[in-house]
Design brief:
The complex is a heterodimer of chains A (247) and B (421).
Chain A: H1 2-15, H2 18-27, H3 41-47, H4 49-52, H5 87-94, H6 101-109, H7 111-114, H8 128-139, H9 172-178, H10 203-214, H11 221-227, H12 232-245
Helix pairs in contact in A: 3-8, 6-8, 9-12, 10-11, 10-12
Chain B: H1 5-19, E1 31-35, H2 41-51, E2 57-61, E3 66-68, H3 73-77, E4 87-89, H4 91-97, E5 100-102, E6 106-110, E7 115-118, E8 123-125, E9 128-131, E10 135-138, H5 161-171, E11 178-182, H6 193-208, E12 213-218, H7 226-236, E13 241-245, H8 246-249, E14 254-256, E15 261-263, E16 268-270, E17 273-276, E18 279-282, H9 284-288, E19 298-301, E20 306-307, E21 310-315, E22 320-321, H10 329-347, E23 356-366, E24 369-379, E25 384-391, H11 398-420
Parallel strand pairs in B: 1-2, 1-9, 2-5, 9-21, 11-12, 11-17, 12-13, 19-22
Antiparallel strand pairs in B: 3-4, 6-7, 7-8, 10-18, 14-15, 15-16, 19-20, 20-21, 23-24, 24-25
The chains are: A mainly alpha (247), B alpha/beta (421).
Chain lengths: 247, 421
């Protein structure tokens, strides 16, 4: 019943033209509009009113029809003591569902797509801009990575590129640009104290190592994180650059 | 039709690139002036000079002749490094990269004429300006504190003589004395820094003054790597360190450098040595140049680090509103490379690639016990956003903690070469 109220409220505010106006701006980009389509926690606060009847945030937030959402980022699903979650969402949490920006986006779009038996009666926010704004607003009630660097990520991951053959000719100029983030730790001069030197490595050795980090065959968490988003062409480019660096 | 985030970021980057004037042709080289020779500014100067292969004239304005890094200054406090080992000169940037290093203060920026005024009375012209002025203090966040108080109650949040002063004051503490830290409110330079400092001072006191106590008065309810620090403090310095958040003390109401008293509604603390770290804002020149907003920091365009207030100016490091990136030397160095690439793309034929950012903060808790937190970030249309990260875990074995510390030593070597050549 509360869910239906939320949808009526949502439909009412959409009809008021605010969100329809947003749609128009999104579909006709121009330089002057660039700042208006940026994600806005302020706009998110207004959209959140549709959620607020069930989910409190801020100081003195309590569980109501839905659990309070302070500190939601990084939290395991169905985590709050004393709240009557559905069995389904408890199971999802137990098997590892954590509220990342990505998962929140999927859930808010259509809760049942993530948790079939969820008790959250909400038809979903269909507009990705609205969801991004609400998530930005919710973010204010969770740890900020700027102040607590270990706090949960706020951006969605890009989809991974499928693996390709090792024998890609890397572009050393592109590799030189990418190497900016390597050389703060791996000294360009080849110095080897505490962090291994990678200058002059044969490129197939380099590529093999980076793929091992990317596939998590190797343990090191920093290197796994660095390798994870690299495409095959980028690994090849880095390999080509570091191979020539030693010459 | 909706625009994906990625499409928008590429769009913003293209728009940012098109803000620049057409590529320079003709005889005079384009000029880039960098204000601030720290992890942000010196890196930007070096990368612009190095990667443009002499096509761009680079001037670096930095008042200090020898730069003492804030990062690793805590290790000097702890006795793990000597003072000179954290000092770096600008000679190589001048000799090996052809950068015009001017030891002077920038006192003003004329954004219409595109000139920087220096304290010596000279003026330097620019085509593009990079401002990396670090932080200045909001003294009003600690009632009773001022620039006049900093020799009795050092902040030591700008490394150099303030760090040497604090170390001497800790050494001079009477037996069983009390060290009080007033920790800063968010956002501030180096989120784990105050707590690493406490660890390092505890390490010193454990050896020289084991009945001494440390009190941390914190306006915050939570801090970076809190679980790791508290585990370490309990393990190595049990009973020595007391962390009091604002919910317990109701906040610091007054500090008195003459009496060394620090007042809160909970209690008044009499410090034998005190470290007061006030709230922070961008280095003053950024405000003087009109680049700050109400927060006191500079809003930037994530894809290029351009100031949102002036497309010919890039702002780096602690002075910026950098979204999810914490204020750190590593972040400044990372942002500098994005800015350097954008500056070169605007002035020469070089390419503008999508911005990539990273940060890692290492902290030393005790000898051979190091921890770290780090992350990667991307430029979105809204801000620099964290995409992935890692943090050391409580209960890690000694071998891993030792390796983490050694890694930090290797990193320091690497990054200082990356900054200063």
């Amino acid at each position: 019943m509360t869910g239906r109220v939320s949808i009526r409220y949502f439909a009412r505010s959409a009809a008021a033209g605010g969100l329809a106006g947003l749609f128009l701006i999104l579909s006709l980009p121009s330089p002057a509009d660039a700042s208006e389509t940026a994600v806005s926690a302020e706009r998110g606060a207004k959209i959140y009113k549709a959620c607020a009847s069930c989910h409190m945030v801020g100081p003195n937030a309590k569980n109501r029809v839905g659990p309070q959402l302070n500190g939601i980022f990084g939290r395991r699903a169905a985590d709050i003591d004393g709240f009557n979650y559905s069995d389904d969402i408890r199971r999802a949490g137990a098997t590892g569902l954590h509220w990342t920006a990505e998962k929140l986006d999927i859930y808010i779009e259509n809760p049942q797509s993530l948790v079939s038996g969820t008790r959250m009666q909400f038809r979903g926010l269909k507009d990705p801009q609205d969801r991004a704004d609400v998530i930005a607003y919710l973010r204010k009630f969770s740890d900020n990575p700027r102040d607590i660097p270990e706090a949960a990520p706020t951006a969605k991951h890009d989809p991974e590129v499928p693996p390709e053959v090792l024998a890609i000719q890397g572009d050393p100029a592109y590799g030189e640009y990418l190497s900016g983030e390597c050389v703060t730790c791996h000294q360009e001069t080849g110095g080897d104290a505490g962090i291994p030197s990678i200058t002059g490595w044969p490129s197939d050795v380099f590529v093999t190592a980076m793929h091992a980090y990317r596939s998590k065959a190797r343990e090191h968490p920093v290197m796994r994180m660095i390798a994870a988003p690299l495409a095959d062409e980028e690994i090849a480019a880095l390999a080509a650059f570091f191979e020539t660096k030693g010459q | 039709m909706t625009i994906t985030r990625r499409g928008f970021t590429a769009f913003s980057a293209a728009m940012a690139a098109s803000f620049y004037a057409p590529k320079v042709i003709g005889q005079t080289k384009p000029k880039v002036v960098v204000i601030g020779g720290g992890a942000g500014g010196a890196t930007a100067a070096r990368y612009i000079a190095k990667d443009s292969k002499g096509a761009i004239d680079v001037t670096l304005i930095e008042p200090t002749r020898n730069y003492y890094t804030c990062f690793f200054s805590n290790l000097y406090l702890g006795g793990f490094r000597d003072f000179e080992s954290i000092g770096h000169s600008y000679g190589k940037l001048a000799s090996d990269y052809g950068i015009n290093v001017i030891h002077d203060w920038a006192t003003g920026v004329d954004r219409d004429a595109k000139t920087v005024s220096l304290a010596s009375g000279t003026t330097v012209p620019y085509d593009r300006l990079v401002i990396a002025p670090g932080i200045d203090f909001k003294y009003e966040t600690v009632p009773g504190y001022s620039i006049e108080a900093q020799n009795r109650m050092p902040h030591s949040w700008k490394a150099g003589s303030q760090t040497q002063l604090l170390k001497a004051q800790v050494d001079a503490m009477p037996e069983g004395g009390t060290f009080v830290m007033v920790a800063p409110p968010n956002p501030f330079r180096c989120p784990p820094g105050p707590y690493e400092r406490v660890s390092m001072i505890a390490h010193v006191l454990k050896q020289k003054n084991p009945t001494a106590k440390i009190v941390i008065l914190d306006p915050k309810e939570k801090f970076s790597k809190q679980g790791l620090f508290m585990e370490g403090w309990e393990k190595y310095y049990p009973g020595m360190i007391e962390w009091l958040p604002a919910s317990m003390t109701e906040g610091v109401t007054r500090v008195d450098p003459a009496t060394m008293e620090i007042e809160t509604p909970l209690d008044t603390f009499k410090a034998d040595a005190a470290n007061v770290i006030p709230g922070q804002k961008a280095g003053h020149i950024a405000e003087a140049a009109g680049l700050t907003d109400d927060s006191g920091f500079c809003p930037i365009v994530p894809a290029t680090m351009q100031s949102q207030k002036d497309e010919n100016i890039h702002v780096l490091g602690d002075a910026t509103i950098a979204g999810d990136m914490p204020k750190s030397g590593f972040s400044a160095n990372s942002q500098a490379k994005v800015a350097a690439m954008a500056v070169r793309a605007g002035l020469t034929d070089s390419k503008l690639f999508p911005a990539r950012f990273a940060n890692t903060c290492w902290s030393l808790i005790e000898t051979d016990d190091g921890v770290k937190v780090g992350a990667k970030y991307e430029a979105t249309d809204e801000k620099i956003a964290k995409t992935d990260g890692f943090i050391s875990q409580t209960g890690e074995d000694a071998a891993l903690r030792k390796q983490t510390y050694e890694e930090s030593v290797g990193w320091y070597d690497g990054i200082t070469k990356d900054i200063f050549g």
